[in-house]
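can u pls check wat happens w/ hypoxanthine
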Amino acid sequence: MTINHDITRNVDLLEARSGGLKPRVGIILGSGLGPLAEDVADPTAVPYGDLHGFPMPGVGGHAGRLLLGNIAGTPVAMLHGRSHYYEAGRADAMKVPVRTLAALGCEALILTNAAGSLRAEVGPGSVMAINDHISLTGVSPLFGEPGDGKFVNMVDAYDPALRARLQETAKANGLTLHDGVYAWFCGPHFETPAEIRAARVLGADAVGMSTVPECILARHAGMKVAALSIVTNLAAGMDDIGLSHDQTLSVAARAAGDVRNLLLAFLKDWPA
Ligand code: HPA
């Protein structure tokens, strides 16, 4: 079966199960951000196993279900659980899920993740809007893509107007929202201190193992992108606390409240 056929079947199934809900915004939840799923009112929950071409996430903190419903009055499609490049060595792991969101009608995709901070003053629990990224993996989710659409322009990939609105919304709600460059390392191992020093020289403010391939796929599919990183730790070598996935999950869960409040306010004012 072709990818396009999978996407068409997914859209038919999701429209049937949700009674024809037309989401305007897609949201992908990162590690530890599961509580945001509680904000979807009257959700229709569809397990990834019922959808075609959706990879089952194999990492703790990532459920595998798609939620359709409303957040603060805006119809959304939320992916509760993502797959990563490091799980099967495929940068296009999220190709069908992202394209399904676009085919459902989402005009924007909000990506969330847990990240390590390269700035000592931006510590665990901080939230950062991504303003640009650096891929340190050398791979693309668009390898092998037919047609010339694959030559995606990545200038302003993180939509400047959405970023400005995120900052305004944060300010209006008394939240500090940092702004910076996210560097994508392949994982699943954490970085070495030397890699972190190198990433800092290159201009990165945060590091993580996700988000970049989804941003590329979303831009290719014509969606606007906004992305939020929850800082769960200072990056390798910056302090004496050992890095672990448990720490990522527990700090992200504690900071999830801020992201939740920010997204509720952000989606409430979603442009008509
Ligand atoms: N590095 C990579 N990914 C991460 C980190 C980190 O320090 N923290 C949370 N996700």
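The radius of gyration is 17 Å.
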